[in-house]
Design brief:
Blueprint (H helix, E strand, L loop, with lengths): L2 H4 L2 E2 L4 E6 L4 H15 L7 E9 L9 E9 L2 E9 L2 H22 L19
Parallel strand pairs: 2-3
Antiparallel strand pairs: 1-2, 3-4, 4-5
Helix pairs in contact: 2-3
Length: 127
């Protein structure tokens, strides 16, 4: 099985987009576009990983589209899951969650948002 057989593509940020099941090219292209929009922006550390999307073959499933991301942003791992009724909704949901998760990871080490020392009741310096 090759990458062409399973519908794998790469974004500019070295993220593999993989499809499993009955996923059409238009849906895969839209997902690829949304993932690239969430990850291809200035200020992010090196990004690599995989996004996989799957469509359930059973017709009685309420939310047949599911997606998962396992992406390394610098040294942190970002994992996002989503289930939706259509491919476009899934791509939009994954974009939103991936964008907010990468924002959290990049701003976690931002020292300008922290106080210089903990308050006195938390073991900080006594004045």
């Amino acid at each position: 099985m090759t990458a062409k057989d399973i519908g794998a593509r790469e974004t500019a940020a070295a993220v593999l987009v993989r499809a499993d099941g009955e996923v059409d090219e238009e849906s895969l292209a839209y997902l690829h576009e949304k993932v690239a929009a969430a990850l291809d922006r200035p200020g992010l550390p090196p990004v690599n990983g995989e996004v996989s999307v799957r469509r359930a073959s059973a017709h009685h499933v309420e939310l047949p589209w599911s997606g998962r991301t396992d992406i390394r942003v610098g040294s942190d791992l970002v994992v996002v899951h989503a289930r939706e009724a259509s491919a476009r909704e899934l791509a939009d949901r994954l974009h939103d969650r991936l964008r907010s998760a990468t924002e959290r990871v990049t701003h976690r080490s931002d020292t300008t948002r922290r106080t210089a020392a903990p308050p006195p009741w938390r073991g900080g310096p006594q004045k």
